[in-house]
Structures are given as structure tokens and as C-alpha cells.
Design brief:
about 260 residues; alpha/beta; Rossmann fold; five-stranded mixed beta sheet; 5 strands; elongated
Length: about 260
């Protein structure tokens, strides 16, 4: 059950007749604790009712007001829901679960499996790092796609053309990550140690940044991600001399670039 806005009294009344219910509080992270407090103060809900939040970053303490009387848990699908999606969207996904009682933990695990997902226990101490990893893999992937689309727009591509061109490339890269892992999946000039191409990229991006009110954003992002890619390339077997050449290209004049950033 998902309580609607200002629906606490109706929720409490409904739960008095459903003592075996498990209530999922699918409200924004910022109001989970306050909403849980309103529910806890709302009336005599049977102690057998369990409450579960769906936040990736919050621990069970967000349901602390309810935990004094009820089993509480968390159920966070490691999946993107920018719009309503059918239950099939859960298939093959991981769901991070936690619970204050073994019985609720088992119930949440069964629910994940019934949806075609795989439950994984993620406890309070690990949830923020877990959620940060999810942000890197999902939100920042979208942010990088936005940067790539914008670059193609600067050379005359329309946005739909850029999306159509880049998404298959991104899918192919992710398919290789799924099949072989990040280290083996890395391709491109940094993996090859092609410092001349890296320098041409940096020069072109610096030229685009020169007329941007945002300062050297594109070249800064390229340098930052390039150094991460270089660490992966080194693990994949790129020879040390090539690693050093690419590293010099990626770090050259970084301080000067930052000094030129508009204040």
C-alpha cells in the first residue's frame, strides 16, 4: 500500500482491518522520517503491520518512530524508474533489502524473487556507498550521455540524430561490461595509449570551452574520466611507458586551466 498525500488518517483506518499488511512508504527520501512519524502518531495500528521504505540511501532509522512497535524494512530496486513501468521492469534486477526482523527480511526476499529480481542484503552501514554506486551507474551515465549529445550538436547534429547514434554505442559498451567486466570492456584511445588522439580531443574541447559561460567544463570532465580510464587501462595491460605519456597529456596545464575559470 502506498499512502497518498494527506492520506494518513485513511491509511490508519484501513490498517486496523488488515493486521497482516506490509505497507510500502514510497514517498521522497526527505519526508520518509516525518511521514513515518505521522503514521506512528495516527492511531492504534496493529503491531503485526510492517512498514517498509523504498529509499536507496536511508537506513532503517528513518522509520524509527514506527520501529518502536512494528517490524520495519527497506526495499530498493537497483533499477531506474523515470516514469511508471510494469512489474516486468524488475526482472533481472537486484533489490537491496534490509529488515528489523528475520521474518520481514524473508518476506521481502520472496517479493523480490516473485518479481523476477534477485534480493541482496544491504545494511545501514553500507547503504550510502551502495546508493552512490547506483548514482554513478545510472544518473551519471545519463549525464555523460547528455554531454556526448551536446558535443555532436556543436557540429550540426540534431538532438534526435545524436541520441540515435550514441545509444547503440553505449548499449554495446554496457553489454561488454556485463559479459567481461569493466577492465576487459575498455576500448578507445586511452586503452590503446594513443596520446596523439587524446591531445587532439583536449585541444578541441578546450576550444569549445573557450566560448562557454560554464568555463572549462568539457575538458575538465574529459581529463577526470580519462585518468580513471587510464587506471583501468593500466590494469588491462597497457605498458607503463604509454600510461605515463597519456597521464602527462591528461594532467598537463590543469592548474592553468583552473586559474582561467571564470569566478
Amino acid at each position: 500500500m502506498t499512502p497518498a498525500r494527506n492520506g494518513v488518517p485513511a491509511l490508519v483506518r484501513a490498517l486496523r482491518t488488515r493486521p497482516r499488511a506490509t505497507v510500502f512508504l514510497t514517498v521522497p527520501d526527505a519526508v520518509v522520517a516525518a511521514f513515518a512519524g505521522q503514521v506512528a502518531a495516527g492511531g492504534d495500528i496493529p503491531a503485526s503491520v510492517a512498514f517498509v521504505h523504498c529509499s536507496g540511501a536511508l537506513g532503517l532509522d528513518a522509520l524509527g518512530r514506527l520501529a518502536a512497535r512494528h517490524e520495519v524494512g527497506s526495499f530498493h530496486p537497483l533499477q531506474s524508474f523515470p516514469r511508471p513501468r510494469p512489474p516486468e521492469a524488475f526482472r533481472g534486477s537486484l533489490v537491496a533489502i534490509d529488515a528489523s526482523a528475520p521474518a520481514l527480511r524473508r518476506r521481502l526476499g520472496r517479493l523480490a524473487r516473485d518479481l523476477g529480481a534477485k534480493p541482496r542484503s544491504v545494511e545501514d552501514a553500507d547503504r550510502v556507498v551502495y546508493h552512490a554506486a547506483a548514482v554513478f551507474a545510472s544518473n551519471y551515465l545519463v549525464a555523460l550521455a547528455g554531454e556526448a549529445v551536446e558535443l555532436l550538436e556543436t557540429i550540426g547534429w540534431s538532438r534526435p540524430e545524436a541520441v540515435r547514434g550514441l545509444v547503440p554505442l553505449m548499449r554495446g559498451a554496457l553489454a561488454e561490461v556485463a559479459l567481461r567486466g569493466p577492465t576487459a570492456a575498455l576500448t578507445g584511445p586511452i586503452r590503446r595509449g594513443d596520446v596523439d588522439t587524446v591531445n587532439r580531443h583536449l585541444e578541441a574541447l578546450a576550444g569549445l570551452d573557450a566560448g562557454s559561460p560554464n568555463g572549462p567544463r568539457k575538458v575538465d570532465v574529459y581529463r577526470m574520466l580519462g585518468r580513471i580510464a587510464l587506471e583501468i587501462a593500466a590494469r588491462a595491460g597497457l605498458e607503463p611507458a604509454a600510461v605515463e605519456r597519456v597521464n602527462r597529456a591528461l594532467t598537463r596545464n590543469v592548474a592553468a586551466t583552473r586559474r582561467r575559470r571564470p569566478r
